[in-house]
C-alpha cells in the first residue's frame, strides 16, 4: 500500500535510477552493526578459548584437587584460586570450560554443519528434481522424522566406539531432517517461480540454476537453521553424554559439565549456570551474526540498516 | 491545483476537504496525498484516475479508515460522511459505518473473500454484523443480494466456497456483500482490473444498474481511462498524490486542460488508433505449430491415477513469418500462455512445433540449447522473472555466459550496448532489479532476451502489468527493435487495444482452440467469429460521448476445459473466407 516507495517511481524517465548500491565490503558492514560486532567478538572469545586452552587454562581440566572440595565434600564457590569455582569432583571449572569449548565447538560447527549440508543436499535434490527421486528422498526424510532421534543416536553411538568424531557424525545424522524438510518446501516453490523458468528458457543447465539461482535464495533459511542448530546440537551432545554414549568422561564438554553437576544445582548453582551461560552466549552470538549476514547479503534489504 | 468544489449537488453524501495523508519515513512525514478536496452527491459516480503511485488507493483507504496507522495516517483535512466527520472518529464507531454506510470492493476478489467460509456465511455474517436480525432473515437478504447482482443459481451459490466460483462470479459476490446493507457510498478500487474484458463489461454494467436502482454514490478508482469514460460523471486525475485536474467526464475527454491529462489520454491504446503497418515482403516461415495439443493430467487418489485431463491447447496450427508480429489474444484460461510455454519447452506438448525447420521434439540437449539462441521469452511480471539477488549487469550478461559468447570484456561491452539500446543508463549495471520501476524492469528483461540476438521473442502479457504511459513506451521500443533487428514477435495478450497497436496478424483463442485468425485489417476491420466480436465490443472506449450500447449480456461463464479421459472438446474447423482470413465455422 505504500504507493510512493522511492525506488519505484513509475513516472520517472527510463534512464533515471535510484542511489548507488555498491557499499563497503560485507565484513566492514558486519562490523558496522553493534549487535553483529558483539556476536562476532563473542564467537572469537569462544574460539580463542578453545584453541588456546593449553595456555589459557590455569589448571589441568581432569585433575581433582584436594583443596577443590570443602571439608564436607561440596564444590568450592568461585574465588581467587578457582575463578569459576570447582565441580563436584573438585576439578577447576574454568579449565574444564575452556577445554570443553573444544568439544562443544566441534559439535556445534562440524556436526551442525554436516547436518545442514546433508539436509540441504537432500532437500534441494528432492525439491528441484521431484519425480521418483524426490518422492523416495522425502519419504525417507519423513521416516527419519518419525523415528525418535535420541533412540537412533543411542543405537548408533552404541554400535560405534564413542569418540568425539563419531558423536559429531551421529548428531549430524539425526539432525539433518528438519533442514531437509524446510529446504525441500522452499526449493519446490522457488523452482516454480518465473525467474527459474526464465533461466531455463535461456538454456541454463541444472548446475547453474541450482548454484547460481536457487542456493542464494535459500541462504537466509540456511543461516537461520544453521544458527539455531548450534544450540540444538550442543545440547543433544550433552544429552548423549549424560546417557553415557556421548563424549566419554573425563573429556569435558559444555553439555556434560551441566549434566554431571546437575545434582548440585541447588547447593552450587554456578556449576550449572556458568556452562549454561556459555552455551547461551555461543548460540546468541551465532544468531546475531547470522541475522546480520542475512540482511547484508540480501540486496533488497540494502539501505535499511 | 486544488480541486474546486464542483457542481454543488443537491444531496451531498461525502465531502472531502484538503485531505492530506502522510507516511512516516526517515526523512519525517512524506505526503502521499496532498490537499485533496471533492464532494460526492447521491447517485453520482466520481472516478479517481491515475497511474501507480498517484495516491488514488491511499485516498480510498483514508475514507474507509483502513490506513495502516501509524505508518501512514491522515495529517490534515476532513472527510464528512453526511454530518459525521470520519478522520477523528474512534475506531469502534468507524466499524459501525464501514459496510453499512460506506462499502468497498477490491481489485482481487479471491483475496478479499475468506476461502474457508461459504459465500452464504460470509454474506450473512456481514449483514448481521451491522443489523442483528435473525439468521433466517439475514439469509433471505443475502439471497436477495445475490439475485441483485444477477448471479446464476443464487441458492446454490450460498452453499459454495470462493474457489468454486470464477473470477467474475467472485467479484459479483463482493459487490453483493457491499450492497447488501444499501450503503450511501460504494468505493470500487480497480474493481475490474483483474478480470477479463468480457467479464469486466458485465461487472461494469452491473455496478451502473445497481447505482441507478439504489441511488448509491460510487467512487471508482481506476487507471483505465476507458473505464472512466464509460462509468464516471466526474473525474479527478491524480499524479504523485496531487490533483492534476478535476472536471466533468465529457469535458475532460473533450478538452483536457493539463498536460499530464493529455499525456495520459494519448497513451491509452485504442482500437483503430494503431499505426498502419506495411505488409511484409518476405514470407519466410520462422516458426510453425502443427496440430499442437497440450493436456495436463489431473491425478486423483492414492496411486495418482489420471482421472481427467485439462485440455489447455487443442490441435492448434499456425505459423510465424520472419520479421512479423503475430498476436495471440484470448481471455484467461484460453491456453495462450500454454502455447508460449510449450514453444520454449517449459511444458510438454503433442504434435509438432518447428523452429527454423527443426522440430522441437527431435532435438537433443545440445540442439535444444542452440535453439535458445533463436528463441526468447519476456514474461508478464518482470520482478518475478528477474533473480532479485543478481545485479542487472550479471542478469543481462548471463545468457552470454551460458552460451559462452565472447570474452568477459566483450560480454560486458555488449551488456552496456544492450542497456543503452533499451533506454537504460549504463550505470544500471551494478544495481539490483528492485531499484528500478516496473517499466525499467521490463526493459531489463527485454535487454536480456535480446542478448543472444534471437530470431523470435515471445512476449507473454509483457506489458499487462505496466501503467498505460509506460506501456506505450515499451510497445514503441518493441516496434523499434523489430525494425532494426528484424526479430519476430509472438505477442500474447488479453488486451485487444494493445494487440491492435502492435500486430501484423492476430489469432483469437477460445478454450484452447483458435477460432479466428487473419491479418490486422481482416480481424479488426471485419471480425467474423462471434467470440471475436464479443471481445472487441467489450473493450472500454475512452470516449464518454459514445453511446453506451445496451450490449448483449452474455451471462454465464466459459465452459470448463477439463474432460474425462478419452473425451475432448469438439474440434473447430477453420475455413478461409478470403485472403488468409480463417474463421471457425
Describe the overall structure.
Helix content of chain A is 66%, strand content 0%. With 305 residues, chain A is an all-alpha fold. The two termini of chain A are 22 Å apart. The model of chain A is unreliable at 1-22 (pLDDT under 50). Helix content of chain B is 35%, strand content 27%. In chain B, the strands form 4 sheets. Chain B has an 8-stranded mixed sheet with strand order 16-17-18-13-19-20-23-22, with helices on both faces. The N and C termini of chain B lie far apart (56 Å). The interface between A and B is large, with 40 and 66 residues.
Task: Write a compact overview of the structure shown.
Chain A is mainly alpha-helical and 305 residues long.
Defining traits:
heterodimer, A: 305 residues, mainly alpha, B: 585 residues, Rossmann fold, eight-stranded mixed β-sheet, six-stranded mixed β-sheet, 35% helix, disordered N terminus
Amino acid at each position: 500500500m505504500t504507493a510512493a516507495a522511492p525506488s519505484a517511481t513509475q513516472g520517472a524517465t527510463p534512464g533515471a535510477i535510484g542511489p548507488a548500491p555498491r557499499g563497503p565490503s560485507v565484513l566492514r558492514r558486519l562490523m558496522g552493526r553493534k549487535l553483529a560486532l558483539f556476536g562476532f567478538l563473542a564467537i572469537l572469545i569462544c574460539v580463542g578459548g578453545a584453541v588456546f586452552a593449553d595456555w589459557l587454562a590455569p589448571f589441568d581440566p581432569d585433575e581433582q584437587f584436594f583443596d577443590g572440595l570443602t571439608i564436607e565434600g561440596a564444590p568450592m564457590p568461585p574465588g581467587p584460586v578457582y575463578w569459576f569455582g570447582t565441580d563436584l569432583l573438585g576439578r577447576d571449572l574454568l579449565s574444564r570450560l575452556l577445554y570443553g569449548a573444544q568439544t562443544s565447538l566441534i559439535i556445534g560447527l562440524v556436526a551442525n554443519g554436516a547436518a545442514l549440508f546433508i539436509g540441504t543436499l537432500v532437500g534441494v535434490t528432492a525439491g528441484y528434481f521431484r519425480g521418483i527421486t524426490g518422492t523416495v528422498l522425502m519419504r525417507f526424510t519423513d521416516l527419519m522424522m518419525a523415528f525418535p532421534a535420541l533412540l537412533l543416536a543411542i543405537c548408533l553411538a552404541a554400535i560405534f566406539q564413542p569418540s568425539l568424531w563419531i558423536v559429531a557424525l551421529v548428531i549430524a545424522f539425526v539432525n539433518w531432517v528438519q533442514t531437509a524438510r524446510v529446504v525441500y518446501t522452499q526449493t519446490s516453490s522457488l523452482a516454480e517461480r518465473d525467474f527459474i523458468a526464465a533461466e531455463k528458457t535461456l538454456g541454463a543447465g541444472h548446475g547453474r540454476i541450482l548454484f547460481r539461482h536457487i542456493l542464494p535464495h535459500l541462504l537466509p533459511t540456511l543461516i537461520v537453521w544453521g544458527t539455531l542448530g548450534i544450540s540444538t546440537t550442543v545440547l543433544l551432545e550433552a544429552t548423549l553424554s549424560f546417557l553415557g554414549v556421548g563424549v566419554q568422561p573425563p573429556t569435558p564438554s559444555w553439555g556434560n559439565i551441566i549434566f554431571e553437576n546437575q545434582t548440585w544445582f541447588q547447593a552450587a548453582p554456578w556449576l550449572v549456570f556458568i556452562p549454561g551461560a556459555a552455551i547461551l552466549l555461543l548460540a546468541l552470538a551465532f544468531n546475531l551474526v547470522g541475522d546480520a549476514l542475512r540482511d547484508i547479503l540480501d540486496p533488497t534489504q540494502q539501505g535499511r540498516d | 491545483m486544488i480541486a474546486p468544489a464542483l457542481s454543488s449537488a443537491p444531496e451531498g453524501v461525502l465531502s472531502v476537504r484538503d485531505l492530506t495523508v502522510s507516511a512516516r519515513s526517515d526523512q519525517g512525514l512524506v505526503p502521499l496525498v496532498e490537499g485533496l478536496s471533492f464532494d460526492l452527491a447521491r447517485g453520482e459516480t466520481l472516478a479517481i484516475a491515475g497511474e501507480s503511485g498517484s495516491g488514488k488507493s491511499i485516498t480510498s483507504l483514508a475514507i474507509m479508515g483502513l490506513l495502516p496507522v501509524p505508518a501512514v495516517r491522515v495529517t490534515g483535512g476532513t472527510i464528512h460522511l453526511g454530518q459525521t466527520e470520519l478522520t477523528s472518529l474512534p475506531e469502534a464507531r468507524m466499524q459501525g459505518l464501514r459496510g453499512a454506510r460506506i462499502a468497498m470492493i477490491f481489485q482481487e476478489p479471491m483475496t478479499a473473500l475468506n476461502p474457508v467460509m461459504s459465500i452464504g456465511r460470509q454474506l450473512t455474517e456481514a449483514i448481521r454484523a451491522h443489523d442483528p436480525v435473525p439468521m433466517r432473515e439475514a439469509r433471505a437478504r443475502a439471497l436477495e443480494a445475490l439475485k441483485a447482482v444477477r448471479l446464476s443459481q443464487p441458492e446454490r451459490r450460498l452453499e459454495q466456497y470462493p474457489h468454486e466460483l470464477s473470477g467474475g462470479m467472485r467479484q459479483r459476490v463482493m459487490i453483493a456483500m457491499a450492497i447488501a446493507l444499501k450503503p450511501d457510498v460504494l468505493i470500487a478500487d480497480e474493481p475490474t482490473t483483474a478480470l477479463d474484458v468480457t467479464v469486466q463489461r458485465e461487472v461494469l454494467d452491473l455496478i451502473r444498474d445497481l447505482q441507478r436502482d439504489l441511488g448509491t454514490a460510487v467512487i471508482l478508482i481506476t487507471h483505465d481511462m476507458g473505464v472512466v469514460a464509460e462509468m464516471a460523471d466526474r473525474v479527478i486525475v491524480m499524479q504523485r498524490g496531487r490533483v492534476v485536474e478535476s472536471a466533468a467526464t465529457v469535458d475532460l475527454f473533450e478538452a483536457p486542460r493539463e498536460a499530464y491529462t493529455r499525456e495520459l489520454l494519448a497513451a491509452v491504446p485504442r482500437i483503430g488508433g494503431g499505426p498502419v503497418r506495411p505488409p511484409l515482403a518476405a514470407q519466410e516461415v520462422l516458426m510453425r505449430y502443427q496440430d499442437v495439443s497440450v493436456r495436463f493430467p489431473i491425478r486423483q487418489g492414492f496411486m495418482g491415477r489420471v482421472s481427467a485431463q485439462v485440455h489447455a491447447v487443442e490441435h492448434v496450427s499456425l505459423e510465424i513469418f520472419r520479421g512479423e508480429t503475430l498476436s495471440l489474444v484470448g481471455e484467461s484460461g484460453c491456453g495462450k500462455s500454454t502455447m508460449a510455454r510449450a514453444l520454449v519447452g517449459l511444458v510438454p506438448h503433442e504434435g509438432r512445433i518447428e523452429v527454423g525447420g527443426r522440430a522441437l521434439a527431435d532435438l537433443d540437449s545440445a540442439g535444444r540449447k542452440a535453439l535458445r539462441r533463436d528463441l526468447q521469452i519476456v514474461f508478464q511480471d518482470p520482478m518475478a522473472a528477474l533473480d532479485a539477488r543478481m545485479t542487472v549487469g550479471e542478469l543481462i550478461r548471463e545468457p552470454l555466459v551460458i552460451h559462452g559468447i565472447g570474452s568477459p570484456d566483450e560480454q560486458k561491452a555488449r551488456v552496456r550496448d544492450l542497456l543503452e539500446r533499451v533506454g537504460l543508463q549504463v550505470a544500471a549495471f551494478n544495481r539490483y532489479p528492485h531499484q528500478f520501476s516496473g517499466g525499467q524492469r521490463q526493459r531489463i528483461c527485454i535487454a536480456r532476451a535480446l542478448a543472444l540476438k534471437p530470431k523470435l521473442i515471445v512476449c507473454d502479457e509483457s506489458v499487462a502489468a505496466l501503467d498505460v504511459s509506460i506501456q506505450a513506451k515499451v510497445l514503441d521500443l518493441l516496434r523499434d527493435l523489430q525494425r532494426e533487428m528484424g526479430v519476430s514477435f509472438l505477442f500474447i495478450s488479453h488486451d485487444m487495444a494493445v494487440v491492435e497497436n502492435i500486430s501484423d496478424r492476430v489469432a483469437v483463442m477460445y478454450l484452447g482452440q483458435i477460432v479466428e485468425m487473419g491479418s490486422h485489417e481482416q480481424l479488426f476491420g471485419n471480425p467474423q467469429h462471434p467470440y471475436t466480436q464479443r471481445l472487441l465490443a467489450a473493450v472500454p472506449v475512452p470516449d464518454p460521448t459514445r453511446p453506451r450500447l445496451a450490449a448483449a449480456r452474455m451471462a454465464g461463464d466459459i465452459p470448463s476445459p477439463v474432460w474425462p479421459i478419452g473425451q475432448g472438446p469438439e474440434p473447430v474447423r477453420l475455413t478461409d473466407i478470403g485472403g488468409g482470413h480463417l474463421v471457425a465455422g
